[in-house]
Amino acid sequence: MTNSWRNPLYLWDVENAVEELPTGDYVSPQDIWDKTRGSRVPMLPVGRLRYYYKWPGHGGALWSRLRYWPTRRRMLNIRGEYNAKTMRREKTIVDKRPIWWLLGLVAFALAPLVIPGDMANTLLTAGATFAIYAAINLCWMLIIGTAGIYSLATYAVVGAAAFGSAYLSIQYGVPWYALPFIGAVIGLVAGLFIAIPAIRLDGFYYALLTIGLNELCRVYTLQSKLFGSSTGGLYGADTYIPQNWNQQSQSLLAYYVCFILMMMALCLYRLINGRRIGRILRMAPEKREAFAEATGVDYRRARIQVFVISSIALGFIGGFYSAHYRGVAFSIFSFDTVLLGLAMLVIGGLGRAEGAVVGTAIVVFLDKVLIFLGPIRLLIIGLIMLGAVLFLRGGLFGIKAQFRAWRDKKKSERRSTRAEKGGEMLPEEATETKNKDLLYWRRYDKMQRDYLKALISPELIAEHERSPLGQHSEALERLLLYFRRAPQADKYAITVVEPFKAYRIVALSGHRGVAPRVVEDKIYASQNDAYHGVFLRRVQDLLES
């Protein structure tokens, strides 16, 4: 049984009006409404609001005045704002890193008080080693992160200062307190020598040069009788650790002295990175030398200054290294040591002081504390480094920013699903639209288009082809009324090329005085064929909308 549509014009005795016309199957608008409002994309509860504890009152000005001397970095970044819901002033801590730094350093200082007695010597030795390598990596981070110079000669500078100061202490009896300063002088000379190629070379080529320099130092000391080729290094330098103390007291003293060395390196990092020279290099990072020169900044000079200052600090650490271990071995120049140092930086995250410290703690714990694992611990370090390179853009301390970027992406996807359900405006666009009726009109127009798409069928197109003008079925009449209600801009029409013989489809401009544009070159032989061509184009646009 076919569906039929009763013509309301038949009761008014309209000419050529038939009583009934066949029509397609009935489609309920309610079904289209429910389908349109239903989400086609699974909506998952992703992300959460960032939570900060809020204090009442103002109070942000006091913390804004307190800064780390001699930098311009604030003690705490307190933001005061007005809460429209509670109708009162509130203040929140935006950057909690100073709090975490304070808690971490206090925990490191108090750790010897809670270390088990049977593991005290191992953990104190590992802690002292961690503090020395953390100081080295902080200075190395100034070179790679702040200055943007990819130097792999860090341990070459440290080793040269350690060998030089140890040699002077063994041969000429230089006391331990002078060794760090002698190492600083050696680091200055080595830094100036290594910094000269940085004026011409950059990136990968400079890294190759510096790793070659590191290997050259290793081969030279390994074959030099002057630096202990027969004994595996130089041993017997003066040390600050009293030899008449027991083992635990010596380890405890070394632990806290190395902790002071790490604090000095951290202060140097803040001093360089937080003052003018560090801000200059952050303003004009690598590959923006032209921008820096245009703003009056001597970019190359600033990079060389940071490199030389870091080399002096590395030399100081090298002198302290020989005073701490009473000498130095050839392994400080080995490629394994350089790779472990790179692993510390990559795991923690380049360009961040906390990344250098935490990355060093992870590698030293695996390498020095879990030594019973044997060579497998080096494999674990390599796997962690590989995972950080493959899946993390900024090391461990880049996870937070990376997670927020992923969460914002998922939020955008959820917004798009809401736009799919309720209309054609994103929430951000809807809030900025002055005429809110436009939002509801678009929503209604979308549901109407979805309903009209369900009415299109081959029978309906054949009906229009038989009779483009005149009375039609209910479904075709709905479709034609929607097409006629379209705005003038880009609305299809027909133009006469030759009366009663040739017609062409055009699109109206919608502006007075602007001629219509030709849509296609096809010529229609009759007016009905041209009307049907316009109908097919409108149907195609509707289906693609």
Q: Can you tell me about this structure?
A:
The chain is mostly helical and 545 residues long. The protein has 3 domains: 4-10 and 440-544, no CATH class; 55-96, no CATH class; 120-284 and 301-392, ABC transporter involved in vitamin B12 uptake, BtuC (Orthogonal Bundle), CATH 1.10.3470. It is built from 20 helices and 10 strands. Strand 4 (77-83) and strand 5 (88-95) form a beta hairpin. Helix 5 packs across helix 11 and helix 6 runs antiparallel to helix 11 (299-325). It starts with a strand and ends with a helix. The model is unreliable at 46-50 (pLDDT under 50).
Topology record:
Layout: E1 4-6, E2 20-22, H1 29-37, E3 54-56, H2 60-65, E4 77-83, E5 88-95, H3 97-110, H4 120-146, H5 154-172, H6 179-195, H7 204-223, E6 233-235, H8 247-274, H9 276-283, H10 289-294, H11 299-325, E7 327-329, H12 335-348, H13 353-369, H14 376-391, H15 399-422, H16 427-432, H17 437-455, H18 458-466, H19 474-484, E8 492-498, E9 502-507, E10 517-518, H20 527-544
Antiparallel strand pairs: 1-2, 3-5, 4-5, 6-7, 8-9, 9-10
Helix pairs in contact: 1-17, 4-8, 4-11, 4-13, 5-6, 5-7, 5-11, 6-11, 8-11, 9-11, 12-13, 12-14
Subcellular location: Cell membrane
Keywords: Cell membrane, Membrane, Transmembrane, Transmembrane helix
Protein name: Branched-chain amino acid ABC transporter permease
